[in-house]
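Re: [help] complex structure
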Amino acid sequence: MCELFASSTAQDATAWEHLARFAEKSRNNPNGWGIGFFRDGRALIEKSSESIHAGDQVHDGFLRLARVVDSRLIISQICGPQEGQPKESPVLPWSDQFLHHHWLFGFRGDSRIAHYQSPRPIMPDARSAVAVRVLEFIRDGMEAEMQVWPDQNLYQALALTCKRLITDYPGDYLFFLANETVLFAFLNHGEVLLYQPPQALGQALVLTTVAGGLTSDPDHWLAFANANRSRGQLLIISGGDLLYQGHL
Amino acid sequence: MCDLFAMCAARSHGAAGVLPLFAARGRRNVHGWGIGFFRGRIPVVEKSPEPVFRDGRAHDSFQRLARVVAKPIILAHIRYRSSGRVDECHAHPFTLDFWGQSWLFAHNGEAGAIESYRSRQAPLLEADSDSARTFEFLRDQFAEAASRPNHPTFLQILYEALAGLIRQYPGEYNFLLSNGRILWAFSNHRQFLLLKESRNLEEALLLTTIEEGLSPENWRTISLREGTWGKILLIAGGDLVLEEDLRPLPGCPTISSRDLPARQA
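Output below.
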């Protein structure tokens, strides 16, 4: 199962300590890694299909990027072995442009959404890539919502799209979706852990799916868990603040 | 009655095309003006007790600032005194630090009951007005919430603070609250007018209390819904991210959506 990481800060900042720990604790995920961030409003992604670990060492490129990339929003994903049938597994995060923003997207989960046919496929030949289909579904759904009801707010458009996603394509979904200002986290299964570094109220937040979190004391991490797949919850984060938690 | 203006975008923009219109259409407010924005984490406020519009033109300094300020979020306030003296210190926006960051605050409405509020936190704002006390009241609620163990969301604290404010100090509260990255707006009287993708500022969202808006475009009117105590808006990066009704009954807010199920407590 893939592992996800996000950091959200009030000002551009690196997340190297947490990213290094993220890599350490995801060593059993051999199917590639990626780090996405924003520069001048544009989403940039560096990724590799190589394992995050080579022997006892974290991938050199990942560590160098972790030290250098500074951005208010950073999303990273370390891709793991797929359960069941082998599937094409494009390395995440992905990016796309819609609703006047560049977006970064990281995903873990599984569903039958591989059959979804978007009018604007991101990667047409990745027919079985669940993550890409989910991003397309989210993008298409939010665009349709905003077109039908332009006065709608962004949260509503995303929440309604997520509701439709888990209704039309039942399955396990956990994703981070961020533009240059706001990070949304959605889950209808599993757990997202949130950490506010000490003395950093309002300045920095870290999210991850890694069990136990990325510090020595798991008690410092606040867990957002979701047991009911037919429902889900959405978090809104900006800067170092958890702004909102809504349940579908 | 004072008037409010905000421009909110993902990246820095100037508001030279709309701030003079705000001054002109809010000309009845003759007791001062202020423009606020953030330089990094630091709030910057320029304000004056002089009328924003006189002899057929906007105040010279207001015009100059409107031409040169370019930031992701710009707030402006033009004042019609209902509380406190007419001087620079009573002009808005005000600044206070809480929840680990600095905030700008601009308010309109009459809320005489809050004038008696005495904050136990420091610092206190120099201004002696309902607006200053309102900002201190909000700051104090966040200061108290900082020690809560269950990590409440920002909206939970704001929601509870506003419910307490209106319950304890009934009055008219329209305000803007920004940390330079996001903008919260609240209204329990009058209205906000909102415009996305203006001809002048395609990537920005504009918000004002001026009834006719600031251009002959399709401004959306947002006002409190019947049976509620007010409307809370969250704006970030040129988007209306969240819109929430403040409800008179205790408890958590529900999502104001066409068909979303109610939010769990």
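The CA atoms of residues 138 and 162 of chain A lie 7 Å apart.
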